[in-house]
Amino acid sequence: MKKVQQIAAVALVCAxxxxxxxxxxxxxxxxxxxxxxxxxxLAQLELGKRTYVGxxxxxxxxxxxxxxxxxxxxxxxxxxxxKANKKAGKVxxxxxxxxxxxxxxxxxxxxx
Length: 112
Ligand code: HEC
Hints:
Blueprint: H1 2-17, H2 27-32, H3 42-55, H4 70-88, H5 95-110
Helix pairs in contact: 3-5, 4-5
């Protein structure tokens, strides 16, 4: 029994260390980028984070939002969405989700 618990504990630790800890988006982040992204909502940032975590670590680890500039994210996310959809052989990130990912990353880097 003890051994089983130890194995479970190790598995948990490794699941946590494989990706940066990404905080949940906040309303104050949505407010901070409302000027850049008219109509942005907290729900959209949440969709962006969910899609980023769900679809963007099949080939490499997740990058921290602060790792790239806003213009780099704007450029790279669409390129990566093409890769993700190609690899899956179907649309796993649609245009709305793509926009949500960009908005989430920019909001999270603007107000970490
Ligand atoms: C099919 C594999 C694959 C998937 C899925 C994928 N990537 Fe990538 N990613 C790569 C490869 C390969 C590179 C290395 C350089 C390149 O091709 O630009 C990379 C590089 C990157 C970089 C670093 C670029 C730089 O210039 O430093 C970022 C950031 C990134 N990916 C973000 C994402 C995001 C966001 C998603 C989800 C939409 C994603 N990736 C999904 C394969 C993938």
